[in-house]
Design a protein that fits this description.
442 residues; elongated; 36% helix; alpha/beta
Length: 442
């Protein structure tokens, strides 16, 4: 066997080992996957749809919501009609509505035809994938806003969750267009991202994966922001965002606030972006979630191996005091960890001195790959809250390398003489650690 073949085999083994926990974790869960009309114009759109079909075969309950804006524009142009947008929404008169319905039918049939192809070049290529589309969305008119009559432009009124669930229970992919009906039989043009948000909330989806033209959210240095809580995401609304990006972010925040576990903002320009986001630890886009402490918990004896793997490189570098496995096992209840899909990426221990109403923050570590991603901030905030709930008034830390990090988070330098008496006796003069203290809010 050639060296190249061995490398290829090893690459496959490594990939499969990485992906298999996600295959297990995602099985049986409901995902809403949305993309806009521009996605159909990318050369790998067919592959995107086949990737969605693969999710269905892997046991994921899939709902697709698609957009049709460029297709509507093309149909309006073909008919010699003017396209009118106000604040990112189309003014849909009776003639424009006919263009909406025509574009909707065209895109719907294209997606269904790709899903009907099955998966090419795999043993399950003959697997039949059931696709169901229907009137699952009830809508109401947007009405007149700021003097503008939007006619047949509407907003979501109600989602037929029972009807969608019935189809998902039959292992069908549910395909939902950006149009809705009223009880009186009228049709309304809707924003795809608002439909996706409403469906994800009503179905209590585990994920809403939103594919769009951008790579995700970028910070001031043009670097990808990989993870935000919905509270942090709200601060982004103060930034200068274009209308589409603002609307998308507002809906992502709304989804998280209303029970959707995670919203993924990823690009639709990269072939395989959906699989990269769902079956790799770090993904390819921006993840927005509800709970800043969702992956933060108290450590248990089962976490010893992961803790050792995290802290031993820092111990060898002299950044942390060495701890034996036996000591770690004895004190594991004092540790708080943060996980990233089963891997411990940060940890810290809190040792209370109840008589002095203070506690030591120790063994504070963040995996080098995840520094700068606010993992340390999340654990610190969690432990500060824990200390407050225990009736403590302050926390202190001894450090030789990370003084400025703690100063930036409200710690002030103090003397070793200010330590609790019991802790002073254990102070290592050779190590000469600096002591910092932070007083907790009342």
């Amino acid at each position: 066997m050639s060296q190249q073949t061995l490398q290829t085999n090893q690459h496959f083994v490594d990939w499969f080992r990485t992906a298999s926990p996600y295959i297990y974790m995602h099985h049986g869960r409901t995902f809403v996957i949305s993309f806009d009309g521009d996605a159909l114009q990318h050369p790998h759109f067919k592959e995107l749809i086949q990737d969605i079909a693969l999710l269905n075969i892997l046991g994921i309950r899939v709902i697709i919501v698609y957009g049709i804006r460029p297709q509507i524009d093309a149909e309006l142009q073909r008919r010699g009609l003017e396209s009118k947008l106000v604040n990112g929404r189309r003014v849909t008169d009776e003639k424009a509505l006919q263009c909406v319905l025509s574009a909707c039918g065209e895109v719907n049939l294209t997606i269904q035809s790709y899903l009907s192809m099955g998966l090419s070049n795999v043993p399950i290529s003959d697997t039949k994938i059931q696709v169901v589309s229907g009137n699952f969305v009830m809508a109401k008119p947007l009405g007149v806003q700021d003097g503008v009559d939007f006619h047949y432009t509407g907003e979501v009124r109600k989602i037929d969750s029972n009807g969608i669930t019935h189809q998902l229970n039959k292992d069908a992919i549910v395909l939902i267009p950006p149009v809705g009906h009223s009880p009186t039989g009228e049709m309304f043009n809707l924003l795809a991202e608002e439909v996706a948000t409403a469906v994800a909330i009503e179905l209590r989806a585990a994920k809403w994966v939103c594919l769009h033209e951008n790579v995700g959210l970028l910070d001031s240095d043009e670097k990808l922001v990989r993870q935000l809580t919905f509270i942090e995401a709200q601060k982004w609304l103060k930034k200068a965002l274009d209308t589409n990006s603002r609307n998308l972010l507002e809906n992502a925040i709304k989804a998280c606030r209303n029970g959707v576990e995670r919203v993924h903002l990823i690009t639709q320009k990269i072939d395989g972006s959906l699989l990269l986001e769902l079956f790799s630890r770090d993904g390819i886009g921006t993840l927005i979630s509800y709970d800043p402490y969702e992956n933060t918990r108290q450590a248990s004896i089962q976490d010893i191996g992961g803790l050792l793997e995290l802290i031993q490189p820092l111990e060898q570098a002299g950044a942390l005091v060495r701890r034996s496995r036996e000591k770690l096992e004895m004190e594991v209840d004092q540790f708080t960890i943060q996980e990233r899909d089963g891997m411990i990426v940060a940890c810290a221990a809190l040792y209370p001195f109840s008589h002095e109403k203070t506690a030591e923050l120790a063994c504070f570590a963040v995996h080098e790959k995840y520094r700068g991603m606010r993992k340390g901030d999340a654990i610190l905030a969690y432990l500060e809250l824990l200390a407050e709930n225990q009736g403590l008034e302050s926390i202190f830390v001894l450090t030789t390398r990370t003084a400025h990090w703690f100063i930036e988070r409200g710690f002030v330098e103090t003397s070793p003489d200010a330590l609790p008496t019991e802790r002073q006796e254990l102070y290592n003069l050779q190590r000469n650690s600096k002591v910092f203290i932070k007083y907790l809010k009342k």
